[in-house]
Amino acid sequence: MNFADLQIFKTVVDEGGIVKAARKLHRVPSNITTRIKQLEASVGIPLFHRDRQRLHLSPSGELLLGYAARLIDLSEEARHAVSGTAPQGVLKLGALESTTASRLPGLLSEFHRRYPDVRLELTTGTNDALVKAVTERQIDAAFIAERPSSRLLAHMPVFRERLTVISSPGEGPIKTSRDADGQSLIAFPDGCAYRRSLQRWLRRDSLTTSRVLELSSYHAIVACVAAGAGIALMPEAVLDAMPHANVRRNRIPRSQSDIVTPLIWRKGEMSPPVLALRTLVASMAAGKGRGKRSS
């Protein structure tokens, strides 16, 4: 399978036909037709259904088109990476809502300043939804809540978080999981790593037998806890970003509260924008480390 033939194949699809593709590539139509036939011969199956003068992608052609697009994009990324030019294009980034609110504003601001030619698209979601999105190439990288188990994913530790159980200030302190017996639980839907941490702290295999109020916003969770609707587990950094949150913080053992937020990406598929983000994250972490040592 010839890479140039894949480029011609994709151009034919993008331009909607042989003649327009030939004009785009500055070739004669007969040459384009020959190259398409060579590609079909190499894969051993028709890529188009031919209807008079019109071409329609076959199911195999649709499948190959996705691979061709990825190979062409990867080739372009490699060219930019080895040429030393500044990264450009689109970076599709995912993050937990907690990380987005408490950790990313300064990081993304600095990223925009350093790499103005990269357009950033940010998606928030639960830990499991973000892992799935990176695995399936829907996004390029993501900040999640726990080390990924998939061998398809690479990762680097980024932010250290401490989780705390919050309760209404009118309730007594919660010192152990037994003190939470009978309390309603407020949590993100299934797929949230912090929800699993809450389950482990409560020593439960699931929360299906508990009274659970599922919400998808930390502001809503804090408001409900403050009103006495139940208890929740959340990062202290998020609470620090809500100075007027009227809730009680209840410490839990460090073995269950201390976690590290990793940045994940597909192994062997680090595009220039992802490499730039990884480099920035590492440099900012190193700068914070030097600041702590000097102080």
Task: Briefly say what this structure is.
The protein is of the alpha/beta class and 295 residues long. Helix content is 47%, strand content 21%.
Please, could you describe this protein's structure?
This protein is an alpha/beta fold and 295 residues long. It folds into three domains: 3-83, Winged helix-like DNA-binding domain superfamily/Winged helix DNA-binding domain (Arc Repressor Mutant, subunit A, Orthogonal Bundle), CATH 1.10.10.10; 89-158 and 259-290, Periplasmic binding protein-like II (D-Maltodextrin-Binding Protein, domain 2); 161-255, D-Maltodextrin-Binding Protein, domain 2, CATH 3.40.190. 47% of the residues lie in helices and 21% in strands. The chain contains twelve helices and eleven strands. The chain has helices spanning 3-15, 18-25, 29-43, 59-83, 97-102, 104-114, 127-135, 193-202, 218-226, 236-240, 254-257, 272-294; strands at residues 48-51, 54-57, 89-95, 118-124, 141-143, 153-167, 185-187, 212-214, 232-235, 248-250, 258-266. The strands form three sheets. Strands 3, 4, 5, 6, 9, 10 and 11 form a seven-stranded mixed β-sheet that branches. Strands 1-2 form a two-stranded antiparallel ribbon. β1 (48-51) and β2 form a beta hairpin. α1 (3-15) crosses α2 (18-25), α1 (3-15) packs across α3 and α2 (18-25) crosses α3. The longest helix has 25 residues, at 59-83. The radius of gyration is 25 Å and the shape is elongated.
